[in-house]
């Protein structure tokens, strides 16, 4: 029963999304998590952990006018997730979210693969889930030779 309701609401959301796309957007949200990788492999594994209090920055860029059309900054909550509003209409823009500051000095090395992700506008008032962002440590834990990819 719960599954049926979830399916019905998913269908409704998709229907709303396609309606919303024909009008200029009022904005949408992007969310995701920030993690620490103490093995420097740049993916999530059994030794990685979420980072509450990490700073993430959103910016949208219009490549025709070559201007930055939106910026916002936020911090991950106590579970390591952020949820940020991208206000206005950005259908002509390419946006990015970037992990700019780690709350932990011992895990603050920038990643090549998960320092930033690019995204395009999603339908009005929906939350777009983005791939995880992360920081890594300077050294690696002794157990890191047996990392197993998660998530
Ligand atoms: C601008 O972005 C659009 C859509 O992503 C792309 O098709 C176009 O080639 C880009 N133009 C330039 C000058 O980079
Ligand atoms: C969108 O982001 C704003 C600002 O972070 C937040 O207040 C709001 O609750 C978010 N909305 C949704 C639907 O997650």
Automatic annotation (TrEMBL):
<feature type="signal peptide">
    <location>
        <begin position="1"/>
        <end position="22"/>
    </location>
</feature>
<keyword id="KW-1015">Disulfide bond</keyword>
<dbReference type="Pfam" id="PF01190">
    <property type="entry name" value="Pollen_Ole_e_1"/>
</dbReference>
<comment type="similarity">
    <text>Belongs to the Ole e I family.</text>
</comment>
<keyword id="KW-0732">Signal</keyword>
<dbReference type="InterPro" id="IPR006041">
    <property type="entry name" value="Pollen_Ole_e1_allergen"/>
</dbReference>
<protein>
    <submittedName>
        <fullName>Uncharacterized protein</fullName>
    </submittedName>
</protein>
